[in-house]
Amino acid sequence: MLTTLAVENYRSLRDLVLPLSRLTVVTGVNGSGKSNLYRALRLLADAGRNGAVAALAREGGLPSTLWAGPEAVGKHGTVRGTVRTKPVGLRLGFGGDEFGYALDFGLPVPGESMFDLDPEYKRECLWRGPVLRPATLLADRAGPAVRVRDDSGAWTASSRIGLTDSVLSELADPRACPELMIVRERLRSWRFYDQFRTDPGAPARQDRVGTRTPVLDHDGGDLAAALRTIQESGDDEALATAVADAFPRSRVEVDGVDGLLRLRFHQHGLLRPLGAAELSDGTLRYLLWVAALLSPRPPELLVLNEPETSLHPDLLPALAALIVKAAQRAQIVVVSHAQPLVQALAEHAATLELEKSAGATTLAGQGRLDRPAWHWPKR
User: Fold this and answer.
1) Half-sphere exposure in the Cβ direction for 91 (13 Å, CA)
2) Where is the ATPase AAA-type core domain (predicted)?
C-alpha cells in the first residue's frame, strides 16, 4: 500500500508531501489544486508505461507544467527572489509499505535539436520501504547511467539507457532486478476514472458485442458486459445491494441477442425495464460507478475524480457505501468537492483538505514537522 505521495514543481503543487491511507479523500474549494494532484498521480502511472514524456507533451510540454511562481515564499506569502537559481525540475514520487520510487524530470542541455524541450530523466530511484536511504536503494539512475543491486546486494556495472526512457520499462528484467518489474506492474495496474460520459451519444448507452469484462473501460462503453461479468464471476450480491441502496426495489439485468449485450434496468412502478438509452444521466452514471468499483479484478490503486458529478444528492450515501466496500480490496483515492460525499466517507477515510497559499497548493493544517518523512534523490 502507498503511504506517501510527493510532488514538487508540478503546476500549483510547488512542494507537497501527503500521507495516504487505505481510503483517502482529497477535498478543497475550486482552484485549490485537486485536479493537479489527480494529474500528478496519472503522470506517475504513465512512468510505468514509459509514457510520462508523451503525457507531458500532451499538457503542452514540461515548461507549461512547471510551477510558475518563485522558488521561495516567505512566512507571510512574501516573494523571495524572482530569478531561478536551481535547475529546472519536476519531481514525482511515492513511498509504500514495500517500495518507494521517485523521478526527477529536467530539460536537456540546449543544442540544435528540434526536441530541446523534451523532458529528460535526470534522476530516477527505486528503494525498499517508504523512505529513500542509501542502504535501501535497489536501482539508481543519474542521467543515462543506471546501476542496480544483484541478488547479493552488490551494485552491478553501470548500464546506459535513453534519457527519455524510464528504468521501469528498460530494465524491468526479473533476472537483473525483479523489484523493478514488480513496481512497474503495480504502476500499470493503477486505475483512473474521471467523469463518465452520459450524453445521448455516450458509449455506455449503446448495445455492443460483449466479452468477459473484469475491468470497466474508461469510457464505460462495455458497461453491460462489465455488469454481467460481476454477476457471473464477481459479487452478484454486492451488485444487487448497490443498486437497491440507490434505487429501492430496483434491479439490473443483462440479456443478449446475437452476441449483443443489453442493459435492462427494472424499476419499481414501471411496467417494463428501461434500456441504457432511456436512463437518466444520474442513473446511468451511478451504474457506471457500480461496475467500476465492484470489478472482479481490483487494481493496486484506484483513483476517482469527482465521482459525484451528475448524481443527485440522495445517491451519494449509496455511492459512499460502495466506495467503502471497494476499499476492502483496493487502495482508493477519491478527489471530491462535494461535502455530502466527503462527510459520508469521513468515518472510514482519511480526509485531506487542500488550500492555496501564495498560489501554491498546501495541505490545510500541515506544518513542516507534520509532513511524512521524505527525501528526494539529489542530482
Assistant:
1) 24
2) 23-337
Taking phi over 0 as left and psi of -120 to 50 as alpha, with beta for the rest, 60 belongs to left
DSSP 373: P
Burial 220-250 (b: 16+ CB within 10 A, else e): bbbbbbbbbbbbeebbeebbebbbebbbeeb
> What's the pLDDT score for residue 108?
84
pTM (2 d.p.) = 0.93
- What SS3 string covers 75-133? CCCCEECCCCCCCCCEEEEEEECCEEEEEEEECCCCCCCCCCCCCEEEEEEEEECCCCC
Q: What is the dihedral of CA 45, 50, 53, 59, to 10 degrees?
A: -40
- DSSP result, 166-195: -HHHHS--TTT-HHHHHHHHHHHH-EEEE-
C-alpha cell at 72: 521561495
The bridge status of strand 137-142 relative to strand 99-106 is: unpaired
Instruction: Report whether pLDDT(172) > 80.
Output: no
* Cell numbers that stand for 77 in this block: 506569502
76 pLDDT exceeds 70? no
* pLDDT tens track for 181-226: 999 999 999 999 998 999 999 999 998 898 999 999 999 999 999 9
